[in-house]
Design goal:
Layout (H helix, E strand, L loop, with lengths): L2 H9 L5 H5 L3 H11 L40 H15 L18 E2 L4 H4 L21 E6 L5 H8 L14 E2 L2 E2 L8 E12 L5 E12 L11 E6 L6 H5 L3 H5 L18 E4 L5 E3 L11 H13 L18 H5 L12 H12 L12 H12 L10 E2 L13 E2 L7 E3 L17 E3 L9 H5 L13 H6 L6 H8 L3 H13 L1
Antiparallel strand pairs: 1-4, 2-3, 2-7, 5-6, 8-9, 10-11, 12-13
Helix pairs in contact: 4-11, 9-11, 12-16
């Protein structure tokens, strides 16, 4: 074995490099399968478990910047591209026309002036303050749609030509800010009720039950049958690695008809089909609506900031035909796009190479006990611990990494309590993509506060678990009935991720 291979193995990086370089492809697949097999030994950490993202894992000091570091295995030229992408991710866009031609085109309606405004320090967003519409910035947006009514609309959704039918006046996304001379679409107003949950040891946990109103509407009433879906911005770490998970490894966990009878029936979110008939698998977004980081980035540029690009053209962003002033406002595209492909490429590169922090306390006895509880409660059925990424010649830093994201990237019915009752493509109103858990224990460190689930209603990891229902009802009930020591161990495990 070469010295270089030894270094890779002992660093916890691409530890399968040597194994995969020898033998047949089928043997390599066998070894990958063995490497990602769920553990049954909770007495000690698994090999390389500390390195959540393989050689892309950040070993830097854990502080408020923990989600903002680049993958340490990037080549020098790719590190430079990361830094340029970071600058564009943070850039404040301005309205057109402006003297800063490379930065104009904001809105006219928007949710934020930069990517960073929602993904503060590349972490989670937060909902607006309760019981007020007077807020300056929020990491929440609201998706809008109406039920498909015509045969054409229904066929478009079935054939993946569209995911939803936008609300006729306000479009597919509610924009709570606007450039000068234009009215914002309104504000998000949240009122929280309370739902007490009694744990197995008699402790009571109070959950927040949100009620949403879209207030101060700037363009008249909405359709009576409008469906809304509030969503906070997720953390940005590890996105490129999620894109590099092999399709067959995602499909291997899908069981849409619950053939094995375990009451868990995760399904792939298909956003189309390739020429060979295989699904194009959605991986990104709360309902897995995008297949690539580039698609997710381009859609966010347009929907959130109002910046046109080759993924989402049109200077008016989400402005509808009924919002004539918005549609007629000057754009910043000079005949092409407001964010040129080089801009979109750099921001995509940045988002793809944000490093996952190294694990903390992963060998601690309490954390190991909590890991055992996590597995025995059934949490690992959906939050699948580990994968080996595929090999792509143009993505050397992300290739052949043993990663621990704790997700299956599938849609699951999470029950009525978490339902938004808004179908999106082939995701129904109770289904959500399993979110990755890596880095979740650093949420407060990075963001200064804790808000979990798709709309930030949960203020702690325990609250987030107690909201689980549907396919996760049995796992939730197992956790609810735990004694205090086992429950605390489970939370300690999650906080170590």
């Amino acid at each position: 074995m070469s010295a270089n291979t030894k270094r890779l193995i002992t660093s916890g990086g691409v530890f399968l490099t040597f194994l995969l370089a020898v033998g047949t492809p089928s043997l390599a697949d066998d070894r990958i399968e063995d490497a990602v097999k769920p553990t049954t030994d909770f007495s000690k950490p698994e090999a390389y478990e500390a390195m959540s993202a393989g050689a892309t894992t950040s070993r830097k000091r854990v502080n408020a910047d923990a989600f903002s570091h680049s993958s340490p295995n990037l080549a020098l030229d790719q590190e430079m591209r990361f830094k340029l992408g970071n600058a564009l991710f943070r850039k404040l866009w301005v309205s057109a026309p402006a003297s800063t031609k490379s930065s104009d085109g904001l809105g006219p309606l928007f949710n934020a002036r930069s990517c960073q405004r929602c993904h503060v320090k590349d972490g989670r967003g937060h909902p607006p303050p309760a019981n007020t519409v007077n807020y300056d910035q929020s990491g929440m947006l609201v998706r809008l749609s109406v039920p498909a009514k015509t045969d054409t609309e229904k066929a478009d959704i079935v054939n993946y030509r569209r995911d939803v039918v936008p609300e006729p006046t306000y479009g597919g996304q509610f924009q709570d800010f606007a450039i000068q001379g234009h009215a914002p679409e309104g504000k998000i107003h949240i009122v929280y009720g309370e739902k007490p949950v009694t744990l197995g040891d008699g402790t009571t946990v109070t959950l927040r039950v949100p009620t949403y109103e879209l207030a101060s509407l700037g363009y008249g009433p909405m359709a009576h049958d409008v469906m809304i879906s509030p969503r906070i911005a997720p953390s940005m770490i590890g996105l490129g690695l999620l894109e590099m998970i092999r399709d067959k490894d995602i499909l291997a966990h899908a069981d849409p008809n619950d053939a094995d009878g375990d009451s868990i029936s995760g399904k792939v979110r298909s956003i189309g089909h390739r020429a060979d008939g295989q699904p194009i698998i959605g991986r990104f977004g709360w309902k897995a609506g995008n297949a690539t980081v580039r698609q997710q980035t381009g859609g966010a540029f347009s929907g959130d900031v109002g910046i046109s690009n080759s993924v989402a053209p049109g200077d008016g962003g989400d402005c509808t035909a009924r919002q004539t002033d918005c549609r007629n406002a000057p754009g910043g595209s000079d005949g092409t796009f407001e964010a040129k492909d080089n801009v979109l490429d750099l921001v995509t590169h940045y988002a793809s190479h944000l490093a996952v922090p190294i694990r903390r306390d992963y060998a601690d006895k309490t954390v190991l006990n909590g890991k055992k509880v996590f597995y025995e409660s059934g949490c690992a059925s959906c939050h699948v611990p580990k994968y080996v990424t595929r090999t792509e010649p143009d993505q050397p830093a992300l290739s052949r990494q043993l990663i621990w994201p704790y997700t299956d990237l599938l849609l699951h019915d999470m029950g009525e309590g978490l339902a938004d009752n808004r179908p999106e493509g082939d995701a129904n109103g109770q289904e959500w993509r399993t979110p990755p858990l890596w880095g979740i224990g650093l949420t407060k460190t990075v963001s200064g506060e804790e808000y979990y689930l798709h709309d930030g209603r949960a203020r702690s990891l325990l609250e987030a678990i107690l909201w689980h229902g549907g396919e996760a009802e049995a796992s939730k009930e197992t956790v609810r009935k735990l004694d205090a020591a086992s429950r605390d161990a489970l939370i300690a495990f999650l906080e170590s991720l």
